[in-house]
Design brief:
Length: 229
C-alpha cells in the first residue's frame, strides 16, 4: 500500500461523502457510511463510476486502491524522470521509498521505459559527460555500476566517450594542484601525487604519463633556475 492509503481500515459500505483534498486537488477523499475510508486519484472517480449512494464491496475497494497505487507510482516516477536524468535503478529505488507495491513499481518503470522517459544508455552517457572532468574512466565506470548500469552498457559508453588525451589533461591538472600542496616531488611527494590521481580512477597508463610529465617539468625547472653565487 502506498503512502496515500497506509491506514485503510474500512473496505466496504455506502459512499456517503466525496470531497477534494485541500492540499492535493487531484485526489478525492471517500467516506463510507459517514466515516472517512480512503482517498484516490480523481480520474478513478470516473473510471470506477464512484458517486454518493454507491455501495462498495471489499473487492471494489481493493481494485480501486490497486489502481490508485499504480497510477500514483507512474506519476511519481514521471516526476522523478522529468526533474533530472536518472537510471532505472535510481528511479525504482525512489519509488520504493514511497512504499508503492512491487507490481505498481514494475508497471510504472515499464511504462516510463516504453515512453522513453527512462533510458539507462542516456543516463550513462550523461553521467560520463558530467563526471569526466572530475574522475578517471575507472572511477566513472564503478559509479555507473553503483547506479545499476549493466556492464555491457558501461563498456559501450566508455568505448564511445573515453578520450585518452582529455583524460591525461584532467589528470595532469589535478596532479599539478596536488604537487603544489605537497611542495616537492621527492619520494614521499611522488607517492602522494601518484596515489591522489590513482584514487580518482584514472587509467594506469594515464597516471604513468602524468607522473613522467611532472618529473620532466620539475627537472627542467630545476635546471633552468638562475643560481646566485
Amino acid at each position: 500500500m502506498s503512502k496515500f492509503n497506509q491506514n485503510v481500515e474500512i473496505f466496504s459500505g455506502e459512499i456517503t461523502k466525496m470531497d477534494i483534498q485541500k492540499k492535493r486537488k487531484d485526489r478525492i477523499n471517500i467516506h463510507l457510511d459517514l466515516v472517512y475510508a480512503f482517498s484516490c486519484h480523481v480520474d478513478l472517480v470516473f473510471e470506477f463510476k464512484l458517486d454518493k449512494g454507491k455501495n462498495l464491496t471489499p473487492e471494489d475497494t481493493k481494485s480501486i486502491l490497486e489502481a490508485d497505487d499504480e497510477k500514483m507510482a507512474y506519476q511519481y516516477g514521471l516526476r522523478i524522470a522529468l526533474m533530472r536524468t536518472v537510471s532505472v535503478y535510481d528511479c525504482r529505488k525512489k519509488l520504493k521509498g514511497y512504499e508503492f507495491s512491487p507490481r505498481s513499481i514494475d508497471l510504472a518503470i515499464d511504462r516510463l521505459l516504453e515512453n522513453d522517459f527512462l533510458s539507462d544508455l542516456r543516463y550513462a552517457a550523461y553521467f560520463y559527460e558530467m563526471k569526466q572532468s572530475q574522475w578517471g574512466r575507472y572511477r566513472i565506470q564503478q559509479e555507473l555500476k553503483r547506479h545499476g548500469i549493466s556492464n555491457d552498457l558501461v563498456r559501450e559508453v566508455t568505448e564511445k566517450m573515453a578520450d585518452g588525451d582529455k583524460e591525461f589533461e584532467e589528470a595532469l591538472k589535478y596532479a599539478s594542484r596536488k604537487l603544489e600542496s605537497v611542495g616537492t616531488l621527492d619520494q614521499k611527494g611522488y607517492a602522494k601525487v601518484y596515489g591522489f590521481i590513482a584514487r580518482k580512477g584514472f587509467a594506469s597508463d594515464v597516471v604513468r604519463r602524468v607522473m613522467n610529465q611532472l618529473k620532466k617539468e620539475c627537472r627542467e625547472s630545476f635546471e633552468n633556475q638562475d643560481w646566485d653565487e
